[in-house]
Amino acid sequence: MKNKSLIPFIIFFQLTVVFTTVSVLQAETLQEAIDKVLDTHDKILAAKADLKASKSRVKESKATNWAPALTLTANYGHEMLMEQAPGSNTDMEAREFDISVTQRLLDWGQASATIDVTKQQKHQMEEALDLARQGLIMDAISSFYNLDRTKKMVVFAEKSVDNIKRQGEVEDIRVSLGKGYSADVLQVKTQLAGAEARLVQSKGAMLLAENHIKAVFLRPADEIADLEVPIPDYSILPKTVEEVVKRAIVANPQARQLAFLTDMLESQSKSIFRTTFFPTLNAVFDYKMKRGVSGTNEYVRDSLGKLEISFPFNLGLSGVDTVRAARRDRDAAKRRHGDTLLLIEEQARSAWSNLHTARSNAALLNSQANLAAKFLELAREERKLDKRTLLDVLNGETALINARSDAYSAETDVKIAFYSLMMSMGVLSTDLLNDGFVKNKE
Fold first, then answer.
1. Is 264 left (phi over 0), alpha (psi -120 to 50) or beta?
2. Measured between alpha carbons, how far is residue 4 from residues 8, 9, 14, 15, 117 in Å?
3. How many domains does the chain have?
4. CATH assignment at residue 247
5. Residue from 127, 134, 147 nearest 34 by CA
6. pTM (2 decimals)?
7. What are the tens digits of pLDDT across the range 131-181?
């Protein structure tokens, strides 16, 4: 009977474990949150719309330049012919229906160059979409880390204020008992004012971070703040800065976008040159059905097949200036591409330097926090032996809290610098957020 009475509790316990496990497995990650943003953010949707439009222009250009052109013309009217010979005048209804089919046969590469222009524009839109995606991912990651940082800064600042208040209360009691010093109380109050000012600043920074989170994720900041904090996989970093630069020049979407722009202007220059200085050869088929036209009150059917050479040329030589302008646009794009490569190289080197500087800074601040912890431990022991004043202990506690706060902030800078370096190389994606997590706890 006792075993049977335990069965409901066992079932309840098992169900609790199951539901808890499911809730953990279904917990949203930062990667999933950012992927949702990438599917709904107007910045990405606009870039996708531009890409779709460019793909449609490629199809349009192919159809316009290579597919036969069909022209249908119908007209109805009244025709009067007045001849000099008596009785030769006509006055009748005129009806005509014309069909004309034109097929381009030879244009010396005009059509191909024109189609290449639209293809290069499509490639530019692909890189623009990639650039927008990486930019939004970087914004989302950095805003998430900044929110996590500011929340931790508030926690550290609150601990500092609470600690100083507690020590101040203790010192007030000592003064009332004649064992303390009023000067120490004033010093405690001075430190308390500084700690409260730091707390106010931390809360202000947290509010700004929450506002930016809402603008990026399009969701309340509370839903993002509780996500797990990803741990970057630093093992995937290149070994040298030269490797970083090499990857950046090859894969950076901004550089690739300008490269495609240069190719597009090259194709456009060729298209304008061949359109201006070369004729086109077309095959034309015309078929006409008419009645009451040219004084003939009967149905007449005419058909004509021909080869047609067309060579429009402006006698003011405007085509020469058009070609020159196109070539200069191309040359300017090449120069801008080269300048952008220099800028990307600089950004890549700076991102590499920022990461290593942030790492060194974080290591030093962590070392400072460890030293502050050891000093506080000794100061408390010496305080028990009356070899240290209360202010010494208070200063040690405040210094430890501030050092831990600065060290955490520096570690956040390292993480942001890591993803910034990935973006400079053009390889930033949400897949990089899969490498590891640490639960975001206050």
1. alpha
2. 8, 10, 16, 18, 80
3. 1
4. 1.20.1600.10
5. 134
6. 0.79
7. 999 999 999 999 999 999 999 999 999 988 888 887 777 666 666 666 655
